Description:
The chain is α+β, with helices and mostly antiparallel strands. The chain is 24% helix and 16% strand.
Amino acid sequence: MSALGIQVPLPRAPYIGPDENAEVDTDIDVYANSGPSAEIAQRPPGKRRKRHHDIASKVRSVQPVPQDKNGNYELPVQVGILTVLNLGHVVWDRDAYHNERYIWPVGYTVQREYYSMRDPNRQVIYTCWITDGGEAPLFHVEAEDTPESPIVAPTATGAWTTVLRAVNKIRQREHSNSASGPDYFGFSHPTIAKMIQDLPGTDKCRMYITQHFVSMKDRHVRGVIKKGRGGRPSVEMLSRGQRALMASTSKSAWSHTDAGHDHGDAVPSTASYSSERISVATLTGSISSSNNNSSSRRSLGHQ
DNA sequence: AGTCTCGCACCTACCGCAAA
DNA sequence: TTTGCGGTAGGTGCGAGACT
Length: 303
C-alpha cells in the first residue's frame, strides 16, 4: 500500500517532551474558568504563552465505555465523533512509541468524518491507524473516497496536515493548514486517552506521565453523544480498517510484546468484527434515560 | 400543579500560534 | 518548519423561575 500511498518526509528525531523542570503555569484549571477568555484576561499583553506540563495534576472527564465481564472495553465504540475500532497494544520497549503525554499503540484504529480531499462539498469517513514502523510508529490515514492513496507519516500531525492541505486546496480555502495530530487521531480525547492508559504495559512506558480521569456526569454524556454521528461506521470502512489492521499485524507481529493480549486482546477482537456481527457500542446504552421530557421540551423551545 | 423559557455548566472540535 | 497546546465557538442537558 505504501507504494501507492502518499509518503510524508521522514522522521526527525522523535519528539521528546520538554524539560520536566521547566517553569510551569499553575493557574490552569481543566474545567473551571474554561469559559471564554478566562485565562487570556489574566495574561499580560505581550507575554508569551507558556506550555503547561502539569499533566499529572489534571483531572479529565471521561465518558463511560461499555466493558465486558473481564473489564475489556467492548469495541468498536463511538467516542465523540470518533469510532474506536481497536486500541492496539502498547509498545513500551521503544521510546518513540510514547512521550510524556501520549502513547501510540500499534494497531490502534479509529474512524472519523472529515471533508473529502476530492469533493469539496462532501464529508467522508477517514480511517486512521498506527503500525509498527520499527524504531518509530507509522501513522496512516485513509479516506473513504481515496482508498488508493493512503497517507503515511511518522507523526499524527504530519499525516493529518497532509489531509488538511489537500482539503483546503480543493475547498479553495485560504486557511492555515495546521492541525493537531493527537486531536484528529483522538489521543487528546480524555475517554480515548483513558482507554489507552488502561492497556497493559503503559506502566512500563518510562516517559509517560499517568493521567487522572473521572467519570463524566450523565447529563453531559448525553450531550456529547448527540454531537457524534451516531456510532455507525460504514461496513465497508470497517472491513477496510480490518484489512489494514490485519496487514499491519501480520507484519509487526503482535507477539512483539508479551503484554497486551490479556486485556485489549486487540487483534483477535478486531479480526472478529466481521460486518455481520458489528454492533457499535454507542455509549447511549450505558446511560440511564432519566429525562426524556426535558429534552423534548427543550427541542420545542429551540427548534 | 403543570408547562415553558432562559441561563448556566460543561463538553467537544476546530484552528491559531507558541514552542521545539 | 513542524508539532501539538490552548483558546474559543458552538452544542448539549439540567434546573430554577416565570407563566398559565
